[in-house]
Amino acid sequence: MISPMNLRIPLLLLVALPLSAQKFDFSSGKGDLYTAERGSGFEEGAVLKPGAGSITAEKPPFYFSARVPAEGNYRVTVTLGDREAATVTTVKAELRRLMVEKVETKPGEFVKRTFLVNTRTPAIPGGATVKLKDREKTSEIWAWDDRITLEFTNAHPSLAAIEIEKAPDVPTLFIAGDSTSTDQGREPFNSWGQMLPRFLTSEIAVANHGESGESLRGFIGERRLEKLLTVVRPGDFLLIQMGHNDQKEKGEGVGAFTTYKASLKRFIADAREKGVTPILVTPMHRNNFDAEGHVANTLGDYPEAVRQTAAEEKVALIDLNAMSKLFYEALGPAQTPKAFADGDTTHHNNYGSYELARCLIQSLRDQKLPLSKYLAPDVPPFDPSHPDPLSTFTIPADQ
């Protein structure tokens, strides 16, 4: 199947639309393809077919997009089910962000699920823009365009209705990170940032500003921090996880306890100045074991620099580095590659990123951080030393 992302023409300028809720009814079993004139519709690449009071596809996933009037947070409500068939639906948004893990309905049963979707454009007030990489302008354009795009997948996804309305007053959890936390655009890659929305309630949005290849200084130089600081509001939160690329930087005086710590402190100060709560996250380990079957550190002093900065600045710390060690060692050297993208030792697949997201959520819960009040009530406690079995993992891969 051709990825519909490759069929999209980048549209980075916003088009004025009414601020009232957009409602879409598929109870007839029919739906139009997206056109710029219509401003909504199903993306090309999937063969749609009618259900009984809903719409589905010959082969999932299928995608629906609706243009929105401005960047920001939107409350999305989907109605799932079918009058005559049992259904199983997982919902993702924008660039493969997991919103609804799995909804099963019986024949004749329809259920609603509500979640928040954050949208953004590269524009910065005053005429500047984020310095996007080429892939962000093409295969990753869904993270930056003027539409909300929803993906419906799993064994038998069935969609009856969608409602989209602006949600201007909800808090937002921002992410400043690299490829291990960004919204990865294609299989088999995935990140904990993409999985995070599933574990939060519909009272907080997730805005993932992470991007592959980023370091703290690169994030500043490409105006990503500047962009983020123009859209945050008092009461928001900021997760900061870097290190994998920072350790590759060269130059006089460059290092974990010098330039890296200084940049971390700038991020913290800038967030606090805006009334935003910063939370530091240590970078997770790579897939690297020693002869005794223990995870070997490949990140040098960078995780420790994050810990020191958190203590010095009195900032909350999620020690994903330590938790990932427990997770990998529980799987062991033979099974840990199954948590990573094929042949990769840094980037995770759906399973690995889901488990790392659970690590973050459990750390929020254990520390009773203010952000923990937004944790989804159906998420059980998690011990990284006893991860979810691979055999029971059910998040479907995108085609």
Description:
This protein has helices spanning 134-137, 192-195, 216-221, 224-231, 256-273, 302-313, 320-331, 350-367, and strands at residues 22-25, 40-42, 48-50, 55-57, 62-67, 72-82, 87-93, 97-105, 109-119, 123-124, 128-129, 147-156, 159-166, 172-177, 205-208, 237-241, 277-281, 316-318. The strands form five sheets. It has a five-stranded antiparallel β-sheet. Helices cover 21% and strands 26% of the residues. With 399 residues, it is of the alpha+beta class. The chain is globular and about 65 Å long. 46% of the residues are buried. The protein folds into two domains: 1-168, Galactose-binding lectin (Jelly Rolls, Sandwich), CATH 2.60.120; 170-399, SGNH hydrolase (Rossmann fold, 3-Layer(aba) Sandwich). It has eight helices and 18 strands.
Query: What is the number of beta strands?
Result: 18
Overall 3D geometry? Answer: globular
Q: Enumerate the spans where pLDDT stays under 50 for 5 or more consecutive residues.
A: 6-18
Proportion of strand residues: 25-35%
Structural class: alpha+beta
Q: What's the tally of helices?
A: 8
Side by side, the strands of the main sheet go: 2-5-12-7-8
Rg, Cα atoms, Å: 21 Å
Percent range for helical residues? 10-25%
Give the CATH level 1 class of the largest domain: Alpha Beta
Mean pLDDT: 94
CATH architecture of the largest domain: 3-Layer(aba) Sandwich
- Biggest β-sheet strands, sense, barrel: 5 strands, antiparallel
| Termini gap | 7 Å
The CATH topology of the largest domain corresponds to Rossmann fold
CATH superfamily of the largest domain: SGNH hydrolase
